[in-house]
Specification:
Blueprint: H1 2-11, H2 16-24, H3 29-44, E1 47-57, H4 83-96, E2 101-106, H5 114-125, E3 130-134, H6 140-149, E4 153-155, H7 163-169, H8 175-187, E5 191-198, H9 205-217, E6 222-227, H10 244-257, H11 267-272, H12 276-281, E7 287-288, H13 295-298, H14 314-327, E8 331-332
Parallel strand pairs: 1-2, 1-7, 1-8, 2-3, 3-4, 4-5, 5-6
Helix pairs in contact: 1-3, 2-9, 3-10, 4-5, 5-6, 9-10
The structure holds 5'-deoxyadenosine and iron/sulfur cluster (SF4).
Residues 60, 62, 64, 67, 69-70, 107-108, 136 line the site of iron/sulfur cluster.
């Protein structure tokens, strides 16, 4: 097993069976995490990229069975932040907090048309930041328009590579269409961010192996991996949820196979354990996304319960993140934190 980890660290390739064997064996976890940490250091260094996250609308037309923002959840108060306020939040993050990337995230909210978004993108780009969108499935033309307006990256998780499971958990959605969307991001000149949930009912070790191989095949620039955390207002409320250990293992193996990409220590990991993000940063992660949304909105952006950043202000979120980084002996990276040179 240790030989397999070594091979992955040197050659950045493992086959399905090898991945499954490593995912199944919990005795090797320590070595796996340490090796992913070494590979991270070797390829992307000790700098941690910060991305300021603005959750600007919690309206969503989809009905994913795991997500608190799903259309049929009538227990949440829906909000949209207006364009000027979104811009002000971005400005605060860029000018006062010195963040070099802004991430605009929302449910699939048709209120924000391509035209509105492009206007917002242009305004935010005037702040000299990189801009990431995380707003769901759109047409190739729309992705192209965002790129032309100045967007640099896009996050669209595949959620799971098990097609049947995807169909079960994302009613009305189409797995192939989602893969097309992810490919279109790259064709449109955007950096591709994708990722999966870990611990959805029905996911198997084999699924995670396929997930990791998918990341490589799609040529991802960023991969976000989060444990599934059951939300009380969803059909999956009684499910058992994912474990931090499995999420970290999938993440560490992803680092071994895609050594130079950007990998965030996700908020969902921090929600499962107080030091979840620190553990992730020591097992392959090199990015943190501090939440810069106004406190009043945060409690309504509840993808899953207990989201660790809920009660904080933007400045408090940043401070907490910086303390973690300092405690690790790492530092905040300078620069925009691109994986590829901009096309
Ligand atoms: N637990 C953890 N992550 C979730 N997401 C949605 N619902 C949950 C949940 N219950 C994740 C999805 C989505 C991202 C924005 O949030 O993977 O892509
Ligand atoms: Fe909407 Fe995304 Fe939640 Fe699915 S995971 S319901 S697309 S916000």
């Amino acid at each position: 097993m240790y030989r397999l980890i070594q091979k992955a660290a040197e050659q950045h390739s493992l086959n399905r069976e090898e991945l499954i064997a490593l995912l199944r064996n919990d005795e090797i976890n320590r070595r796996l995490f340490e090796t992913a940490d070494e590979v991270r250091k070797q390829y992307v260094g000790d700098g941690i990229h910060l991305r300021g996250l603005i959750e600007f609308s919690n309206f969503c037309r989809n009905n994913c069975r795991y997500c608190g923002l799903r259309r049929d959840n009538f227990n949440i108060e829906r909000y949209r932040i207006d364009e000027d306020t979104i811009f002000k939040l971005a400005e605060h993050a860029a000018v006062n907090m010195k963040l070099r990337t802004i991430v605009l995230q929302s449910g699939e909210d048709l209120h924000f048309s391509a035209e509105k978004l492009c206007r917002l993108i242009r305004r935010i780009k005037s702040l000299d930041v990189a801009l990431t969108l995380s707003i769901g499935e759109k047409s190739f033309e729309e992705y192209r328009a965002y790129r032309e307006a100045g967007a640099d990256r896009f996050l669209l998780r595949i959620e799971t590579t098990d097609k049947q499971l995807y169909l079960d958990h994302d009613p009305g959605m189409d797995w192939e269409q989602r893969v097309d969307c992810i490919r279109n991001l790259g064709r449109a000149g955007l950096e591709i961010g994708t990722g999966v949930l870990v611990g959805l009912p029905g996911q198997k070790t084999e699924t995670y192996a396929d997930d990791i191989l998918f990341f490589k095949q799609i040529n991802a620039d960023m991969i976000g991996i989060g444990p599934f955390i059951p939300h009380p207002d969803t059909p999956l409320k009684t499910a058992s949820g994912g474990t931090l250990t499995m999420a970290l293992k999938v993440m560490a193996l992803t680092r071994l196979l895609l050594p130079d990409i950007n990998i965030p220590a996700t908020t969902a990991m921090e929600t499962l354990a107080e030091n979840g993000q620190v553990m992730a940063l020591k097992a392959g992660a090199n990015v943190i996304m501090p939440n810069v949304t106004l406190t009043q909105y945060r409690k309504h952006y509840e993808l899953y319960p207990g989201k660790s950043t809920t009660g904080y202000t933007p400045d408090e979120s940043l401070k907490a993140v910086k303390e973690k980084i300092a405690a690790l002996g790492r530092f905040v990276a300078e620069g925009y934190g691109f994986h590829r040179q901009k096309i």
